[in-house]
Amino acid sequence: MHPSELKSLSKFLSLILRHEPKRIGLTLDDAGWAGIDALLERAAASGRPMTRQQLEAVVETSDKKRFAISEDGLRIRANQGHSIDVDLGLLPAAPPEVLYHGTATRFLESILATGLGKRQRHHVHLTDDLAVARSVGQRYGVVVVLTVDAARMHAEGHTFFRSENGVWLTDAVPAGYLSVDF
Ligand code: HQG
C-alpha cells in the first residue's frame, strides 16, 4: 500500500476505534476491542472497504503503534487516545524523572493558569521523547514543549499509567509541576 493510503486508513481506524465506532454501526466491548470480521464488514457497508491484509499493514507500520490485534487474531483496539468510555486495564506505573508534553504557544497562558487537562480524551498524554513531544505540539501551531516534574508528581500521590505503545498517561498535571522549554 502507498504511504498515503496507509495514513488515511490509520486515521479512519483511529476515528472508529477511539472516538466514533457508531459512525459505521460498530460496537466495542468494555475494553475497547472490536471483532475484526465485524469491523471489516461494517467498514465495507459504510463505503470504506479494506482487506484484512491492509488492516494488518496499518497495525504493523504505525509509527506510534496505535493499534493492537488480540493474541487470537480475532480482535483489534486502539492502544490509547480514546474519547469514548473504555477500560484499557492499564496498571499504574512509576514514571521517569521527567516527561514532556508538546502543545501550542497559544494554549500556554491557559495551561499555566489551570494546569494540563485531559480535554476530550481519557487522560493527559505525556511522552519521555522530546522529539515526539515536539511533533505532537506542531499539530496545533507554534510548538512549545512543557517539562513535567513526573517524579515529584508521583511521589506526591499522582497516578501514572503507561499504554501498550509507551505513551504516559495521567489524569491532570497541576501547573506547579510544569516548566516551559522553548
Ligand atoms: C491542550 C497523538 C488549554 C493540550 C499524540 C493539547 C498523543 C490545554 C490539547 C495523543 C489545557 C488536547 C494526544 C488547558 C491541555 N488549556 N489547552 N488547561 N490542557 N490543553 O489531541 O496530547 O497521533 O487531546 O496541550 O502522540 O495533543 O493521535 O492531546 O494541545 O499521544 O496517535 O489541549 O495524540 O497521538 O489535545 O495528543 P489532544 P495531545 P496520535
TrEMBL record:
Alphabetically sorted, this entry's keywords are: NAD, Transferase
Q: What is its EC number?
A: 2.7.1.-
Its transmembrane ranges are none
Protein's UniProt keywords contain NAD: yes
GO molecular-function terms, A-Z: transferase activity
- Which top-level enzyme class is recorded in the Swiss-Prot or TrEMBL entry? transferase
Q: Known Pfam families for this protein?
A: PTS_2-RNA
Keyword ATP-binding (UniProt): no
InterPro entries reported for this sequence = Ptrans_KptA/Tpt1 (IPR002745), RNA_2'-PTrans_C (IPR042081), RNA_2'-PTrans_KptA (IPR022928), RNA_2'-PTrans_N (IPR042080)
What is the documented function of this protein? Removes the 2'-phosphate from RNA via an intermediate in which the phosphate is ADP-ribosylated by NAD followed by a presumed transesterification to release the RNA and generate ADP-ribose 1''-2''-cyclic phosphate (APPR>P). May function as an ADP-ribosylase.
Q: Which PANTHER family match?
A: PUTATIVE PHOSPHOTRANSFERASE, TRNA 2'-PHOSPHOTRANSFERASE 1
What HAMAP family does its record include? KptA (MF_00299)
Family under the similarity heading: Belongs to the KptA/TPT1 family.
Q: What's the protein here called?
A: Probable RNA 2'-phosphotransferase
Q: Which organism is it from?
A: Ralstonia flaminis
